[in-house]
Design a protein that fits this description.
With 146 residues, the chain is α+β, with helices and mostly antiparallel strands. The chain has three helices and nine strands; from the N terminus they run E-E-E-E-H-E-H-E-E-E-H-E. It has one domain: Nucleoside Triphosphate Pyrophosphohydrolase (Alpha-Beta Complex).
Amino acid sequence: MKRIDELKAGVAVIILNREKQVLLQKRADVELWGIPSGHIEIGETVSEAAIREVKEETNLDIRITKLIGVYSEPHSQVFVYPNGKGVHFITICFLAEIIGGELRCNSDESLEIKFFGPGNLPQDLLKMHPRWLKDALANRELAFIR
């Protein structure tokens, strides 16, 4: 197992457009594509964190529509940053719909923001994100716990 320096709570938000394409951001820190995601800050709820992260990264206003799952498996949830720091994330993944805002890169965290078809995802995608998307598209009533 990779070295783990920290345990953090995180959120991820899957946003699909009318064509069922998923919104991805190309992250500035690792230059890989991924689902909008981030850390939960002290004093905020998981839903507040999800809404804030999406606004910061995409400029979109969202409404959470469903809990997709809770992910904690170390083999996919340990992320090593460019500085070598290993963080084990416990990630709460939501499905959300756009209710306002105009899509644009809204922070120095993103290089690009774009919708992709589920069968046409970029090759340089963060390793844990395909599982989250697959679970979101499973159309299952109950949340996944992985």
